[in-house]
Amino acid sequence: MARQVADAMWAKDLASQALGLQLQQVGQGHARFTMTVRPEHCNGFGVLHGGVLATLADTAFAFACNSSNALTLATGFDIDILRSAHAGDALSARADCRHQGGQNGLYDVTITRGEDTIAHFRGRSQRLKGRKVVEEI
Amino acid sequence: MARQVADAMWAKDLASQALGLQLQQVGQGHARFTMTVRPEHCNGFGVLHGGVLATLADTAFAFACNSSNALTLATGFDIDILRSAHAGDALSARADCRHQGGQNGLYDVTITRGEDTIAHFRGRSQRLKGRKVVEEI
Amino acid sequence: MARQVADAMWAKDLASQALGLQLQQVGQGHARFTMTVRPEHCNGFGVLHGGVLATLADTAFAFACNSSNALTLATGFDIDILRSAHAGDALSARADCRHQGGQNGLYDVTITRGEDTIAHFRGRSQRLKGRKVVEEI
Amino acid sequence: MARQVADAMWAKDLASQALGLQLQQVGQGHARFTMTVRPEHCNGFGVLHGGVLATLADTAFAFACNSSNALTLATGFDIDILRSAHAGDALSARADCRHQGGQNGLYDVTITRGEDTIAHFRGRSQRLKGRKVVEEI
Asked: Given pLDDT bands bounded at 50, 70 and 90, which one contains residue A136?
C-alpha cells in the first residue's frame, strides 16, 4: 500500500520533481529520498540553501507519514544543520516514524552524504480524520 | 551597508532566484521577501510544499542575519505551519532580529498572505569570526 | 473568565507553587508570571537550570492557552536560551497567543530580567474537544 | 572521566536533587537519569508538568554533553510530549550524542515509562573554549 500511495503523491509533487529528488524506498512509516546538489540549489554563499535541504527532508517526511494512506499534513518541523553541502554532493534523506497516535505523528529524518550526517530534521504531522490519500485503496 | 550586502548575496543566490523570490526591503537586522506561489512550488496534495515555504523564510532570515556584513550561517530553524497556501497566493516573509550576540543570533520570520499568518519561523545563526560577506565594505 | 480559570489551575498546580512562581496577570490569550531565582533552582554550574527556566515559561504558556476555559494541553515547546540567570535574579515570563485555531495553538513566551531577554520559548498546544477547565463557567 | 565529571556536577546540581532525579549511568556522550513522579511535580490538571519533564531531560542532556570534561552549556532545546505522565510513574531519560563538533553539539533524549515513550527532546549545546568542568582532570 505504501508504494501505491507514494506513486500517487509523487505524480503530483511538482516541487520535489523540480528539485530532482528521487524516491528510493518507501514502506509503512518510513521513506528514503536522494538528491544530487545542483548549482541552482545553492544560496549566496555557494552552499546548499537551508530551505532546499529542508525540502528534501520534508518530502521524505511527507511520504513516510502518509504511507498508510491516512491523509496527513505537516504542522511544522525543526532542522539542525551540522555540515554544509555543495554542488555535486549526493545526499540521502531517511525518514522514520517515531510516534503515530490517532492523529498526531512525530517523524525523524536524517540527511547524510556518504558517512557524514548533514542534518537532523524532526517533523510533526496531523491526520485529517476520515480522509485518504488514494480513495480506492 | 545592508543593501550592498544583500545585492552581493542575491547575485549568487540561485536557489532563491529559481523560486522567484523578490527582495522588497532590507536593513540592519531585518529583511522582507515576497513570492507568488506557482504550481511547481506545490506538493502531492496541491498545497505549497513545506520546504518551499521554509525556503522563503530561510532566505529572509539569511539576508537579515548577514545585513551588517558579518558572514553568518544558519545552524538550524523551526517552522510552524498554520495555514496551507496554494498556487496563485502572494506571500510575504518578514525577518526580524530577536537577539544578536557576538556569535549567536536568533531571528523570527513571519510569513503572511494578506492579513492571514501562514507560518512562524525561528532561525538560529552563527557568525564566522572575522569573515565578511563583502570584503571591500 | 480568564481569572477564574487561572485561579482553578493555580490551586492545584503544585509544581509551579513549589518553584515559587507568582501569577501577575492573565487575560484572554496571555499570562505573565514572575519568579525569583533561588539556589535550589540552579544546576551544577551555579546557573539557573534550563528545565526550571522552561518550567516558568511553560506555566505562563499553560495559563495563556487555557484562558478561555477550553481544556488545552501542551504537545511540545522549543526554548532558546540567550543569557544565563543566577540566584537572586528576578525573572518575568510573558506568554502571548500567536495563533489559536479550533484545536491547535501556538504561543510565544519571552523571559526577561529587567531589560535583558533571557530566553524565547514557543509552545504548541492542542485542545481536548468539548472539555472545559472549569465546568461551571 | 565521565563519572568524575558527573560526580562534580551532581554535587552542586540542587535543582536536579530537589526533583529527586537519580543518575543511573554516564559515559562518553551519554547519560541516563530516572525519576519517580511525585504530586509536587504535577500541574493544575494533575499531570506531570511539562517543565519538570523537560528538567529531567535537560539534566540527562547536560551530563551527556559535559561527559568529556569540556565545559558545555545548553543554548536551547525542543521537546515533543507524546503521552501524559502521572504521580507514581517511574520515568527514565536517556541522552545520546548525535553530533559533537568543536564547539556545537546536538543531543537526543528519549523519556520512557516502561515500554512507552513519553517524550522526545533534542538539545543544542555550545562549549566554552578552553574551559573544563573539573580543572584537575
From this structure: confident
**How many structural domains is chain B composed of?**
1
Q: Which residue segment(s) compose the domain that D60 sits in?
A: 2-132
Cell output for C21: 512562581
Residue B117 has pLDDT above 90, yes or no: yes
CB A22 within 8 A of CB A33: yes
Residues 6 or more apart whose CB falls under 8 angstroms from that of C130 comprise: none
With beta carbons under 8 A apart, name residues in chain A contacting C75. Answer: 104, 124
User: Does the distance separating the beta carbons of D73 and C42 come in below 8 Å?
Assistant: no
**ipTM of the complex as predicted:** 0.97
Nearest CA in chain D to B77: D78
Note whether B122 contacts C124, CB cutoff 8 Å. no
DSSP letter assigned to residue D39: G
How far apart are the CA of C78 and the nearest CA of chain D, in angstroms? Answer: 4
The strands making up C22-27's β-sheet, listed across from edge to edge, are C22-27, C30-36, C90-100, C104-113, C116-132, C70-81, D70-81, D116-132, D104-113, D90-100, D30-36, D22-27
Is residue A137 assigned to a domain?
no
- Is B54 within 8 Å of chain A by CB? yes
Is residue D120 very low, low, confident or very high in pLDDT (cuts 50, 70, 90)? very high
Residue A49 in this model has a pLDDT that exceeds 90: yes
Examine residue B137 and state whether it is found in any structural domain, yes or no.
no
Q: What's chain C's average pLDDT?
A: 97
Contacts of B among chains (3+ CB pairs under 8 A): A, C, D
- Residue C62: per-residue pLDDT: 98
Residue among A8, A55, A76 whose CB faces B49 most closely: A55
Residue B110 · residue B120 · CB < 8 Å: yes
Q: Which residue, A44, C58, C75, is CA-closest to D52?
A: C58
What mean pLDDT value characterizes chain B? 97
Mean pLDDT value of segment D19-32: 98
CATH number at residue A71: 3.10.129.10
Q: Which chains touch C (3 or more CB pairs under 8 A)?
A: A, B, D
Mean pLDDT, to the nearest integer, of C82-97? 98
Q: Establish, for the pair of chains B and C, how many residue pairs have beta carbons separated by less than 8 Å.
A: 31
Whether D30 is in a domain gets the answer yes
Query: Looking at the complex, does the CB of residue A49 fall below 8 Å from at least one CB of chain D?
Result: no
Q: Where are the beta strands (DSSP E) in chain B?
A: 22-27, 30-36, 70-81, 90-100, 104-113, 116-132
Report the chain A residue with the minimal C-alpha distance to residue D101: A82
Residue B63: pLDDT band with limits 50, 70, 90: very high
d(CA D80, CA B3): 39
pLDDT confidence tier of residue A108, bands split at 50, 70 and 90: very high
Given a contact cutoff of 8 angstroms between Cβ atoms, the answer to whether D70 and D109 are in contact is: no
Whether residue C120 and residue B101 make contact (CB cut-off 8 A), yes or no, is no
Share of chain C above pLDDT 90, in %: 97
Which residues in A lie closer than 8 A to residue C78 (C-beta atoms)?
78
Residue C75 C-alpha, separation from nearest chain A C-alpha, in angstroms: 9
Is D118 contained in some domain? yes
pLDDT higher than 90, residue B57: yes
